[in-house]
Amino acid sequence: MGAIITLTTDFGLSDGYVAAMKGVVLGINPEARLVDICHSIRPQDVSQAAFVLSTAWEYFPRRTVHLVVVDPGVGTERKAIILRTPAADFVAPDGPGFKAVVISRPVFWRSPVSTTFHGRDIFAPVAAHLSLGVPPEDFGEAITSLTVLAVPQPYRAPDGRLIGHIRHIDNFGNLITSIRGSELPLKARTIAVEVGNQAISGLSRTYGTGEGLLAIIGSSGYLEISLRGGDARAFLRVEVGDEVMVKEGDR
Amino acid sequence: MGAIITLTTDFGLSDGYVAAMKGVVLGINPEARLVDICHSIRPQDVSQAAFVLSTAWEYFPRRTVHLVVVDPGVGTERKAIILRTPAADFVAPDGPGFKAVVISRPVFWRSPVSTTFHGRDIFAPVAAHLSLGVPPEDFGEAITSLTVLAVPQPYRAPDGRLIGHIRHIDNFGNLITSIRGSELPLKARTIAVEVGNQAISGLSRTYGTGEGLLAIIGSSGYLEISLRGGDARAFLRVEVGDEVMVKEGDR
Amino acid sequence: MGAIITLTTDFGLSDGYVAAMKGVVLGINPEARLVDICHSIRPQDVSQAAFVLSTAWEYFPRRTVHLVVVDPGVGTERKAIILRTPAADFVAPDGPGFKAVVISRPVFWRSPVSTTFHGRDIFAPVAAHLSLGVPPEDFGEAITSLTVLAVPQPYRAPDGRLIGHIRHIDNFGNLITSIRGSELPLKARTIAVEVGNQAISGLSRTYGTGEGLLAIIGSSGYLEISLRGGDARAFLRVEVGDEVMVKEGDR
After folding, report:
1. What's the gap in Å between the CA of A136 and the closest CA on chain C?
2. Which residue in B has a C-alpha nearest to residue C121's C-alpha?
3. Any CB–CB contact under 8 A between C182 and chain A?
4. pLDDT at residue A78, rounded to an integer
5. Which residues contact C127 (CB under 8 A, 6 or more apart)?
6. Taking the model in full, what pTM does it have?
7. CB count, 10 Å around CB of C115?
8. How many other CB atoms sit within 10 Å of the CB of residue C79?
9. Which candidate, C177, C187, C185, places its Cα nearest to that of C161?
10. Among chain A residues, CA nearest to C171
11. Residue B139's pLDDT is what?
12. CB of B80 within 8 A of CB of B20?
């Protein structure tokens, strides 16, 4: 029963890059269990990577190692870190805060280290050694300040409307917003959601019935906009970042 | 040597949904061996999922658990079932008959169950417990009637021609039809296949030689139409569902 | 700790073909560890398969079995081979030379063998038996001559320029050329690279800084052309096979 290591990258599936990382991991920890989270993150889109990982990592067993390589700064001076939380370890370019360690001891790296593929030469071997039980502090110095990804938070407009944005669009064309279900008024039937010049009255409980647009609290706990039997993105012609507004209904 | 669990979904590869299911499975059965069959089923296209699974499941060892989540009815009243056959177990929304059990005992589910992601909250944990040897009847009541997917069958026209349709188009643009090789006349050389306003004389034994369109009994046992060195779908401008006719040749 | 078997095919991810092969492998070697290298090789593009595999195979542990099924000649008279090198075994249609064996003994194959899917019926079971320690010579006769893939090599033009071509374009739009870093003059700052009617002066050490096009020795050891923060393929409107020229700078 080897340790689980997940992988999230912007490498796509048409190159050998992901496999090279897996080969490096298996060379160090032959018992590692590799699980792909997603390799089609838009190039260098750290925000999308953070969102996709956030919808998956908590469903893995404790002590899973999550290896993330979406890295606008490969070869530059950005730091690589290990982040140990009570539930999981994250190995990633400097990004999200509990016990954080800068990856700085080359003894755990492949040699030589290329200037262009730190995923294979630094992150993968570190994840593999971590999965074998090497403690985070052996990989480098503990740090207390991190670059935290700035994700725009919903805010309340002067007229009382809650203003958020589209955080992610999934494979079905569902729009996942930045608005948590817990932020919405309790009487769900009285709310109205506006997006892409369309208004939706009330919250639905399932995707499965009726016609037209619907608003729903999705499986990740956020407000989602969905088109029954269709693709809300194509129908509304909206993209990640577009505004979504929620107001109490007229009743 | 953990149990094998395969996964077939319409979730695509750009979200964290598939990985969330795998995390849930590994949390319950850390020895499970996860094998992806296909995650690019067209959204809610149960027919395509059934076809793709039919080309793969029988090549897996006995007692493999096949987890299928292509689910137009998530959150509605459709049933979830386990289907135990002599060779394999299928965990799926109500669909294909031997020993069938309705999945109704929440003790095996994640808690709370979302209304939108039963793949993660019901199907994945049930597949994981099943792979650990929990008998199907522990998950719910046995049932005897199932919703069977209606796949149009080939029929014989009054003029003697066999009329089928395109059942699937693969990554190479090969057209896999609904006509089994065993339904064709024995003297293969004397048949003519018509599709997309083109006629093809006789059956070929391989894709590999010559030029132009060919008809062949493919690896799944069905009549296929292929374009040598090309893409038959693009060449013929046909789609899944289009008619394919077979008649005895003029000889 | 089962043997590792990697898979490289042109099967795409929308069919059940890859999974059928994995099922066959696991039926023979239930301990096999399956790692996908790439399944989106362009149909029958043996050259692309060879390149992608070349960027990944050496990072796997010794004795990994690499199963490659990109096969323009399925069902024809082309040979299937096992190639044992000191580091790894390759199971593939006749292609790249050390100890080579023709796969000719049907006792290790699935029965019956289809005429159209040798990946599932011959290559996958042979890879699985090989991973269990069956020696290559048990699968067929040793051979000494192989069909070697002709990859155009860079050459020196009369005016002293080094002429190569674009060998591969990766998911980021980086152009990987056929020119090895070791073939370039030592004083990297004095070289100029020409591609797609653009000239690039000098070599960069990282992708991560500045603007515009850059030339770099990539992680695979070859000269690459990259657009900072963008997609060099789209910017230069070039494709695999296009010429790349390197000359000593004017200085």
Report:
1. 24
2. B219
3. no
4. 59
5. C5, C25, C65, C67, C91
6. 0.77
7. 19
8. 16
9. C185
10. A12
11. 84
12. no
